[in-house]
Fold this protein.
Amino acid sequence: MKSINYLYAILVILSLVNCSKDAVNPTAAVEKNTLNDVVRDNFGLTYLATALYKSGLNNILMQDGSYTLLAPSDDAYKAAGYQNPAAVYAEPAGKLAEQGNYHILKAPVVFTGKALKMNQEEETLLGTKVYWSRVKRGKDTLTTINGGRLLQADTKASNGVMQVLDRLLVPNVHGNLKQALAANVDLSLFYQALKVSGLLESLAGTANYTVFALNNTAIKQMGYPDLEAIEKADPVELKKLLSYHIAKERKFAQDYFLLTPDGTTSYTETMLNEKTVTINLLGQYNVPNSFTGITIKGIGNSWALTPLRMDVLAGNGVIHVMGHTLQQ
């Protein structure tokens, strides 16, 4: 009975999505093909169509203008934990609006023929940035946005262009890495350790960093059970430890893949203390240029470590959350 109710809810939502544009403007379908039309007519974007309708952003994408819509595929929504369009519709409209505004760029961005560059910024309707990279790897030209792969490029509409992604982007709402770390309660011990070590304020500046942030469990395993223990710790020892978990420049997980030659399976990253870690690149066997994630191995680690969460974006860098320490 529950599955029948879900199916009914999905059918109702999709019927509303399909009817909404013509209800607002009955002649629009004849006059122009807007970004909202393109989404609505694409069977692989039903989750996005639902999110746009619930948030009201479909109305913006019906209007004249010149936008870029970063369109997560249905599989991208499923990977983010949404089982069906009804689950998307159940989200608060405000959350979907924030999410949606982060997927709409203020200007048209066409990737065909675009220069090969890393982490070029574009401003969103939310007011914060997304970052695209474009590289040649083997015979393929690969494009990513915030570390997610571009699946279908440059679908034209009367009011802009659509880019289909394999990832639902998490809105960048933190101005810097210090703020992003402070907002995550499971990184509270790591945050305090950075503060005591003297490294924290550098993460609030203009320079970009990649932080392999240790969660509270990992910090406790190192012998620091609580904030008081960290306060009493030797700042020099903490700095020695933590500087092996921070690298210069912004690197999403897939950036390590993009920065390596075709056929390469690892990348050597230099950390703040000038020591290196090995980033192992994971992909599907016999699928050219596939990327599924990374593992990281410190000089002293017996095995490679898998991040618990990747690509947490802030204004001046990226955080990858770790459950174990990189040993040096």
Observations:
- Residues 1-9, 19-30 have pLDDT under 50 and may be disordered.
- The CA atoms of residues 149 and 166 lie 6 Å apart.
- The first strand starts at residue 67 and ends at 72.
- The domain at 2-165 is CATH 2.30.180.10 (FAS1 domain).
